[in-house]
Amino acid sequence: MSQSEAVDPMPYLNGDKPTVSYHTYDGTWATITITQKANVFKNVGYEIIGQLEAGGKYKVYGQREYAAEGTLFYNVGSGYIHNAYGTIVNHHATVTSKINTYSTPNGAIKRQLAPGTYKVHAAKDGWYNLGAEWVKADQVLITKN
């Protein structure tokens, strides 16, 4: 990690060692740790294509709701995992100087965002969603737990 960038010490004090990447984008916005053996579905809610063992940690690329049940499934790249079988940890975006936020990726400018650390809720086409607004991926430092 860069010695010139401030880093939140809490993950280290809690025994975690998050990885940090700067100006990189891989489409993920969280990680999921499998808490019990979980089926992997090809589609949300049906067509089992495999299983994941408890304790495994996987990148999360998106989430979708299964309309029949109203439950969430997380896209782990190879398929979808029911939310009840894992624990999600969102990535965090650190802003080091004021940047613009947008209503959607490539949308209208909403406001300027002050320096700080923000929870990432989604990723899409080189952008991160910080809740109600989007920021360009190349303007934030991403901490991935």
What report would you give on this structure?
It contains one helix and 17 strands. The strands form six sheets. The protein has a four-stranded antiparallel beta sheet, with no helix packed on it. It has a three-stranded antiparallel beta sheet with strand order 5-2-9, with no helix packed on it. The longest helix is centred in the N-terminal third of the chain and has 4 residues, at 10-13. It has one helix at residues 10-13; strands at 19-22, 30-34, 38-43, 46-52, 57-60, 62-66, 71-75, 80-82, 86-90, 92-95, 99-102, 109-113, 116-119, 122-124, 127-129, 134-136, 141-144.
How is the topology of this model organized?
Blueprint (H helix, E strand, L loop, with lengths): L9 H4 L5 E4 L7 E5 L3 E6 L2 E7 L4 E4 L1 E5 L4 E5 L4 E3 L3 E5 L1 E4 L3 E4 L6 E5 L2 E4 L2 E3 L2 E3 L4 E3 L4 E4 L1
Antiparallel strand pairs: 1-17, 2-5, 2-9, 3-4, 6-7, 7-8, 10-13, 10-17, 11-12, 14-15, 15-16
